[in-house]
Amino acid sequence: MELFHYHYWTPFLEETEKWYEALGFSVVLRMGKKDGVFQTFNPPMKWEEFRDTNVMFRIIEMRRGRVNVTFGFGKRPIFDHLGILVSEDEYKKICERAKNIGWTVDGNNRRTFIHTPYQMKVELQLRHDVVGDGDIRIMKMNIILPTEEAVHTMKSVLEGLQEIEYMLGEKTGLKQVYIKDTEYLDVKDTNGVVVISEPVVSIQEITYDMRPMIKEFMVQNWGDDLMVSQGHKHHLSELAGFVAMTEDSIIGIVTYNKENDRCEIVSLDSIKERKGIGTMLLQCVEGKMQEIGCYEMWLITSNDNTHAMHFYQKRGYHMHALHRGAIHEARKIKPTIPLVTKEGIQIESEIEFRKRL
């Protein structure tokens, strides 16, 4: 099963179309009634050509990758239904469960609708040509339902569909849609639906050919690629590690230095915080060390970096030692290390963290 679609009625048709167009969606269908007859107003036709002709739009369909959004005219924004791509076996089981509790199942060659008692429908789609190709897809929807019983019943009918998160509220509605996309977004459409997108992230082990790109990343984010820990000088672009990438862009890097049976996390950097990127990168290093029989992880952070301290402690690292004045010595190797933070905290000591895998 795969969530692929949502539909609502709205008085803001042109605004909604332009909003999704700005997110990279393309119109594949505009169908409406003009002079009592259903007609299509598909691209390359523009709104200027029919805006003032009193077209009553039944459906405007837009697609991007494996995401399909439709909307038609309504007096106020109302969520109508969500759509699920299913196999023949999944289709039969869902329809059977719905019929067993008295829900109406209305199907034809194009699609099947399950009518729930919660002022929303569920579309089951066997035809996979209703979506495009690629990695862009719906990861999760937050659906509002009126009661705990409604949530339990929906979960039982759509058993196995993990991508819906249910919330309680006075009225049924679509609150949030999470899309796997090419960039990070957290925006609200013209009908009040919050669309949150996150890029397709791939984790790759650093190769020799990546070094120029990694050095450029380090210079942009750290000022240079030189780091000092425990009096040792490291050029980050020359170390082993992993990169997190979206298409051709680096959004995170971890570098490490293994000596004997110990592995130091030399640097860990993520452009986007609270997206799980740093955790994934750290886990890649830990996993690799376990594979080769290296079980002692350690790292150094400065006394001002409370964010890093919280991050590592949450992931099983413990504070092992305080090296007072170590950063004064590090400045002899790297004079550009600041003396104080913007908040006025003196940067003078190294804090060592360790973790046994």
Automatic annotation (TrEMBL):
One of its GO terms (molecular function) is acyltransferase activity, transferring groups other than amino-acyl groups. It comes from the Bacteria. PROSITE patterns: GNAT (PS51186). Gene3D superfamilies: 2,3-Dihydroxybiphenyl 1,2-Dioxygenase, domain 1, 3.40.630.30. SUPFAM superfamilies: Acyl-CoA N-acyltransferases (Nat), Glyoxalase/Bleomycin resistance protein/Dihydroxybiphenyl dioxygenase. Pfam families: Acetyltransf_1. Residues 201-338 form the N-acetyltransferase domain. This is N-acetyltransferase domain-containing protein. It comes from Priestia taiwanensis.
